[in-house]
Amino acid sequence: MFLLKSIPKVDKFIENDKFNDLALSLVVSITQEVLQDLRENILKNKVESFTEDELVQTVLQKYDELTKPSLQKLINATGVIVHTNLGRSLIDAKTFDKVKEIVTSYNNLEYDLVKGKRGERYSHISDVICRLLGCEDVLIVNNNASAVFLILNTFVKKKEVIVSRGELVEIGGSFRIPDVMKHSGAKLVEVGATNKTHLYDYEDAITENTSMLMKVHKSNYSIEGFSSEVGFKELVKLAKEKNLIDYYDMGSGHLVDLPYGLDQYEPSVLKCMQENPSLLSFSGDKLLGSVQAGIIVGKKEHIAKLKKNQLLRMLRVDKLTLALLEENITSVLLNKIDDIPTLKMLFTSIEELRENALYMQEKIKDISESEIIETKTVIGGGTTPNRTIPSIALSIKIKNYKQNKMEKLFREKKIIGRIQDDKFLLDFRAIQKSEIAQIINIVKEIADV
């Protein structure tokens, strides 16, 4: 009973000078929780004594934990460039600085400076994308899943969409094409077999209620061996013959020629646009190397119908997304690949990666065991499934720490590496040059040098 009576009153407790510069309402809320926990632990005989200073420190610690940003900067040493868990594509600092003045000021997001009246937010980016891709119009939504849903809801609600069984994908977060179709109001018609689909499978399935022929990128997996699929060119031709809409959910899609022969595994937006399709959609934060967005391109008449769908109000993007996306698309148009970190990392030569690894190895040779290893990695984000690209990694061992201990120690310092063949590796494919000095210092910290 004595301990319970010793618990301070909230109004008196929060008068402590250490709370003077803090948000009072938050201090009160945390204090109430801390004192309630203390009361319960006393009743459970888990606490034999306490001091007010200890309670103050507990409140301050919880206050710091709550007010500290949850999102934190990390160093990606996994080798995976488009790492979904680590934020996918990076935004170039100079590019961000370009748009900072715009997004921190009032701007003409929906204002026509020539006509002096309300304008359309998508007009700011349509010209540069149409110029790059040769499409009639463009629409931007908040991600490619939104693009798929909006397109199906607009053109296939209470109608049929034909898709190959080999393309009924499930991607991260249990996002399944059949479920999206169901919720959009579209009726799915599956054709072909899992491993083989022919053009006549689509043709035989067309009825008077069919609205669309749809092709879906096989994100995160590939079908090989005794298999075949219908190319988008053939699908576009059939759709035109039958007066239907053709639509390719490209997932990632890319706007430049990829290295290491990856073009044959990942659809090119530029090449697909040569088929004069009805609609395409792809992600902004994968091989485009920009912000999260769903980019829909195609026929002006179809884009116009999408813009009239009331769902668009819930799926539209803001000024920051549009401003950054416009900068990145312009960089692609001008062939300034180095302005897009994702593409810069992808095109970095093995020789340069090795030089970076040798430099770090030399700097830490006296405090750790290390070995330069030729390895392979993946681009990530569901792109080029089951295809690898060459990379260079540095295996690091400090003291007698096992690889799991090494991984944990580096993770605690905000460096995310990987374990391979019982070794802890720092893969240089996604490490920025500006981060190397920081990694060297962290190695020294871990080694207690």
Layout of strands and helices, then pairs:
Blueprint: H1 2-6, H2 10-13, H3 24-43, H4 52-67, E1 75-76, H5 93-103, E2 111-112, E3 117-118, H6 123-133, E4 137-141, H7 144-155, E5 160-164, E6 170-171, E7 175-176, H8 177-184, E8 187-191, H9 199-205, E9 210-216, H10 232-241, E10 245-249, H11 269-273, E11 279-283, E12 294-298, H12 300-308, H13 312-315, H14 319-333, H15 341-347, H16 350-363, E13 369-377, E14 389-397, H17 403-412, E15 415-416, E16 418-420, E17 423-427, H18 436-446
Parallel strand pairs: 1-15, 5-8, 5-9, 9-10, 10-11
Antiparallel strand pairs: 2-3, 4-12, 6-7, 11-12, 13-14, 14-17, 16-17
Please, what is the oligomeric state? single chain
Number of domains: 3
Mean pLDDT: 93
- Tell me the total number of β-strands: 17
Placed side by side, the strands forming the largest sheet appear as 4-12-11-10-9-5-8
Function: Converts seryl-tRNA(Sec) to selenocysteinyl-tRNA(Sec) required for selenoprotein biosynthesis.
Pfam family, one: SelA
Enzyme class: transferase
Cofactor: pyridoxal 5'-phosphate
Structural description of this entry:
- The chain has 449 residues and is an alpha/beta fold.
- The chain has three domains: 2-66; 75-82 and 344-446, Alpha-Beta Complex (Aspartate Aminotransferase, domain 1); 91-339, Aspartate Aminotransferase, domain 2.
- It contains 18 helices and 17 strands.
- The protein has a seven-stranded mixed sheet with strand order 4-12-11-10-9-5-8, sandwiched between helices.
- Strand 9 (210-216), helix 10 and strand 10 form a beta-alpha-beta unit.
- Helix 5 (93-103) packs across helix 14 (319-333) and helix 6 (123-133) packs parallel to helix 14.
- The longest helix has 20 residues, at 24-43.
- The chain is globular.
- The two termini are 51 Å apart.
